[in-house]
Structure prediction request, 235 residues.
Amino acid sequence: MKNFASKWMIGAVWLCTFAACDDGRLHADRLILPEEGRVVKLTATLSGLDTWTDGYSIVLAGFERGSDYTVIAKPVQAGSDGTVALTLSGVSEEVTTLELCAINRIRKRVATYYALDCSTLDDDTLRIDAGTLDVGMFATIQQDIFDRTCTGCHGQGRWLDLSAGASHRTLVNQPSTVFEGRTRVLPGNASGSVLYTILTTGESAGLATDHQTQFTLGEEQFALIEDWIDGGARE
Prediction:
């Protein structure tokens, strides 16, 4: 691939040197160099792309081993029916994992929806079919936080049901039964919402479970809940 690119460039320079041009100069915008590295082609059907607040992006990204920050990334756009056909070029050899994921404004991984270990693959072109996925902001909170951390105590049939399909209804604009006069999730106001403060402060220390110490969420997850609430707490 590199030899081909070098020969192509030499040929292009020769042509522009000896061929007649309008003003005899080589214009950079007329010379399109092929990108080195692998090419990745993604197909998928996605929902929830438009539910994210500012500062987040759904992307096809490459990561180095052990890193949470993208080496290369391209935002995902879907058609009116949710279908995605995206090509990412110039993927270097340093990339060991390709992911359909959510990243924040500093290009750090927030959530992963599909991952491919490409460290042992030699193909110049890699094809990923991620299938049908809900990549919405609240769906991400449900899958990565509620389902993994909360539903053991707050599942179906419990006094606070945080299971899929019920959690939004039982949280948003609902009065707290523990903290009188407060709201579980108050759209537009994370600092005034019990869900956020019970996880980030010690106000539940006197309850059966001290949520701040018992649940070790990452900074990105705390920020995700905060930004979701401040952004209107959409489903």
Remarks:
- Residues 1-34 have pLDDT under 50 and may be disordered.
